[in-house]
User: Fold this.
Amino acid sequence: MEELEKYMQIALDLAKERKGYTHPNPTVGAVIVKDGKIIGKGYHYKAGLPHAEREAIKDAKSKGYDLKDSTMFVTLEPCCHYGKTPPCTNAILEEKISKVVVATLDPNPLVSGKGVEILKENGVEVVVGVLEKEAKKLNEDFFIYISQKRPFVHIKVAQTFDGKIATKTGSSKWITNEESRRYAHILRNQATAVLVGSNTAFCDNPSLTVRYIKTEKQPIRVLLDRKLKVPADYNIYNNDTSTIVITSKEADKENLQKISQKENVKLYFLDAPEGKFRIEDVLNVLYQNQIVHLLVEGGKEIITSFIKEGYFDKISIFMAPKIVGEDGVSSFGSLGVLDIKDSVKLKVEDFKRFGEDFYFECYKQV
Assistant:
């Protein structure tokens, strides 16, 4: 098992190189081993291009290797259906690979155990579950997207020690240090889309693009703006990337006319009972746009709505050793919690230090 884990870890490391670049597909890595030697490596580069298995086969064959009786290590069950690319099970069988080690099954109903069964039926030895926990973590967003038919919701908060995201005047630049902000851009780079509300977009005029680090793509921007008050010349509408705007029948008509003429903007109209969009409705729109991983960057009202309605999977909290006091803007609004036993319970799965700042990676306890 130790040797199997060694090669699977290499495959996982390959997959991590493409984290955030393959949506709506999962990120997958593959390694081919023969006679105790790695003869081929590959990862899924992006949707529409060959999968990791075929890339690893191509790599091995380009070096002149015969793949017969070799072993393939792959982080996700090989596909067995025709999509934008042909089934990977076909390629494995064609090359007479004798053993396939799979980290985890694919949650996609089109695959979900069928790929493994096809390989077994054709005489391939299959081992499933090697570094399964790590593989599921790597594609946690894809698993939610497929199984729950909605984006994986990842909330990001940058706050002071006393839980404030701004002073009462709205001052918030910068609560955390540059090292924290760089890591926040890594999180942004791994997302399909970044969401803010109209107050954040209006007051901060953010571009919501990936900076600080090198990137091959920019996440889609999502703006919740019931009255469409964010002016058409604000950064959120610039040509750096595309923008999804969710508004309502209360949208400002003059601004609507200007925004509707922008080629990089998609407009959606939703009902907003009691002056707020239903988060379920918002997520339905984003799911239809193949948003796999949604990074929610605030502010307080938006974050509170996601938490209160139960639509969040992960919260990343950056905490700086600063105190603002009770007149500052809290990270979270009213959740209606009257007894501590009814509080929203989180599980901290990772902790980091960025200089003097602290980082907590939390998940909802279920």
In short: The chain is about 30% helix and 25% strand. Residues 89 and 118 are 7 Å apart (CA to CA). The longest strand covers residues 152-160. The mean pLDDT is 93.
